[in-house]
Design a protein that fits this description.
- With 340 residues, the protein is α+β, with helices and mostly antiparallel strands.
- Among the domains are: 58 residues, 2-Layer Sandwich (Uridine Diphospho-n-acetylenolpyruvylglucosamine Reductase, domain 2), CATH 3.30.43.10; 100 residues, CO dehydrogenase flavoprotein, C-terminal domain (Enolase-like, domain 1, 2-Layer Sandwich), CATH 3.30.390.
- 28% of the residues lie in helices and 20% in strands.
- A 5-stranded antiparallel β-sheet has the order 4-5-8-6-7. Strands 9-10-11-12 form a 4-stranded antiparallel β-sheet, sandwiched between helices.
- A hairpin with a 6-residue loop joins strand 11 and strand 12.
- Helix 5 runs antiparallel to helix 9, helix 10 runs antiparallel to helix 11 and helix 11 packs across helix 12.
- The longest helix is centred in the C-terminal third of the chain and has 18 residues.
- The protein starts with a strand and ends with a helix.
- 49% of the residues are buried.
- The protein binds flavin-adenine dinucleotide and iron/sulfur cluster.
Length: 340
């Protein structure tokens, strides 16, 4: 690991000011000289591997703003401070009652130790586990722009089938983000140009021909909170995660589902897919396919077909299309049958 300067700013504006001092206009957060660290479960790993090489590490844990560590429940929804730990949010009574899909997505992620350490903002900004990205001797457009992509013709069993490009097929591995995109969450950020709100669906960028540009954030911008609007019918929601082993593994395929039902007829469906796409993936075509329909195995199957209509498999990951469809069908039927 290279030497770096470690700083502990004590308020948000100081942290932004320090990061701004080291950032240039076209710096990406993950390639900037100064980078933020919260739980460190993702960034410290990538620093040790030589994938992330900040010269200045800005630890956010001493920031004095109390809201960064709070979960605030209001009539308008729930606001999660950026430094709230995954474990705390997963165990929160109102999160479990109002948005089971959020609580499930956090509980099924990582391990108890990691959930106690890792922050919510760090979780949504976690970087891909693509083996060729993590090992610096391989060609990787995300790590070294323009160098090529070793995964295209390499072992790509865990890679994405949706949202891929000729430059990158890396999967976005997070779980929480699928619940957030399904529920139309909003990210609050503070940077050199002040505070702003970013719809969660606009936070992550598909790789296209610039896979190193991973989010809409500027290098000096700090996520301060994530807000989920009140959706009374989201009590009928869940997160289903399919993986190689029952715990402590990333999703091969997952589905976040929330349903507004009139009897067995779908008034509105919210669907996001994990483990199969390059970014948190809202399955709009599947939602449309279900609207106004009786939810049964046939309509759920048609929605799953719609969700994967644009899939592009590579040599080893074609199984994710069938697995992803079955995961979604099961998630839809289990959500329909929930007692709320
Ligand atoms: C073995 C293992 C298994 C795992 N399994 C899962 C899993 O099944 N599902 C899952 O979802 N995750 C999983 N994870 C990922 C884990 O959840 C993330 O590492 C963790 O959530 C990251 O949070 P953190 O606070 O530690 O982030 P950090 O490592 O501190 O930071 C991550 C990134 O976010 C940036 N950042 C952090 N906070 C802010 C902020 N407020 N504003 C702007 N930028 C910020 C950092 O600069 C960095 O780029 C696993 C991790 C490990 C090591
Ligand atoms: S899939 Fe993306 S992250 Fe993986 S090697 Fe290719 S460019 Fe790099």
């Amino acid at each position: 690991m290279r030497p770096f300067v470690y700083e502990q700013p004590t308020d948000i504006s100081t942290a932004v000011a320090i990061a701004s001092r080291f950032a240039t206009d076209d710096d990406q957060p993950t390639r900037a000289n100064a980078q933020f660290i919260a739980g460190g479960t993702n960034l410290a790993d990538y620093m040790k591997l030589g994938v992330a090489e900040p010269n200045h590490l800005l630890d956010l844990n001493q920031l004095k703003e109390a809201a960064l560590r709070q979960i605030q429940v209001t009539d308008g929804g729930i606001r999660f401070g950026a430094l709230v730990r995954m474990g705390e949010a997963a165990d929160h009574a109102e999160v479990n009652r109002r948005y089971p899909v959020i609580a499930d997505s956090l509980r099924l992620a990582a391990s108890g130790q990691i959930r106690n350490m890792a922050s919510l903002a760090g979780n949504v900004l976690q970087r891909t586990r693509c083996e060729y990205f993590r090992e610096t001797s391989w060609q990787c457009n995300k790590r070294v722009p323009g160098s090529g992509c070793a995964a295209m013709d390499g072992f790509n069993r865990q890679h994405a089938v949706l949202g891929v490009s000729d430059a990158c097929i890396a999967t976005y591995h997070g779980d929480f983000a699928q619940a957030l995109i399904a529920l139309d969450a909003v990210v609050h950020a503070e940077g050199g140009h002040g505070a702003r709100k970013i719809p969660f669906a606009k936070l992550h960028r598909q790789p296209r021909d610039t896979p190193h540009v991973e989010t809409d954030l500027a290098a000096e911008e700090i996520i301060t909170a994530i807000e989920v609007p009140a959706i009374p019918w989201a009590r009928r929601s869940l997160y289903l995660k399919i993986r190689d082993r029952e715990s402590y593994a990333f999703a091969l395929a997952s589905a976040a589902v929330a349903l507004d039902l009139d009897g067995e007829t779908v008034r509105e469906a919210r669907i996001a897919l994990g483990g199969v796409a390059t970014v948190p993936w809202r399955a709009g075509a599947a939602e449309e396919a279900l609207q106004g329909k009786k939810l049964d195995e046939a309509s759920a199957g048609a929605a799953a077909d719609a969700a994967f209509a644009g899939a592009h498999p590579r040599q080893h990951n074609a199984f994710k299309i069938e697995l992803g469809k079955r995961t979604l069908v099961r998630a839809l039927l289990e959500t329909r049958d929930m007692k709320v």
